[in-house]
Amino acid sequence: MNIDIRPLENIEQLSILATLADAEGHGIVSRLVEDWRRGKNRFDRSGEALLIAVGPADIMGVCGLNRDPFVAEGQVGRLRRLYVAPAWRRQGIASALVSELLNRAGSWFDVVHVRTYNRGAVAFYRSLGFVDVKGDPTCTHRRDVAA
Fold it and tell me: How many CB atoms lie within 10 A of CB 94?
């Protein structure tokens, strides 16, 4: 399958993903949309990006990269709001999104953080080279990305 990873052009593109995520009890896409609309987070600072995965049936997933707001010093990025539509899971979409963001991160950040307590997500991030972080309430996993 051909997966086209590209920057989000219009926040309205996420309406279907938000509906799907909400139906599963995950408000992450709706929060992303609301934060965007309020101007709280538009993934538009240096090094940041909000990418979508587009395939044969419209947008299949989304993931963003921010400067980590919980770290005062250093070049630290943070993966945020990863979501893939149920019909497209386990087909490499999440990996493609995260891999593209990690590639971009290497030009701006030394390390990328993520926070998740979901078992499946933990295994997923570990498979991409993230290591566990203990004792940090804002970060559960990290990966060095400096070139």
Answer: 22
